[in-house]
Amino acid sequence: MCLKSRKVVEASRRLGERFADWRQGKISFAEFDASVQGWINHVRYADSWGLRKHMLKQFRW
Hints:
- This is EF-hand domain-containing protein.
- The protein has helices at residues 5-23, 29-43, 49-56.
- Helix content is 69%, strand content 0%.
- The chain is elongated.
- Helix 1 (5-23) runs antiparallel to helix 2 (29-43).
- By secondary structure, it is mostly helical.
């Protein structure tokens, strides 16, 4: 399975927005975590360990 680069960019942008919303108190951590877990479950069928590691390191709290 191959991931399209535009989908990776879209996911990065969307997760970044969700992270910012959580930091500002607009959403709960559970909502942010659900978004991250949903994305991980979506891409885990691809050979995406490096991509997941790269994407998630930007969300350090």
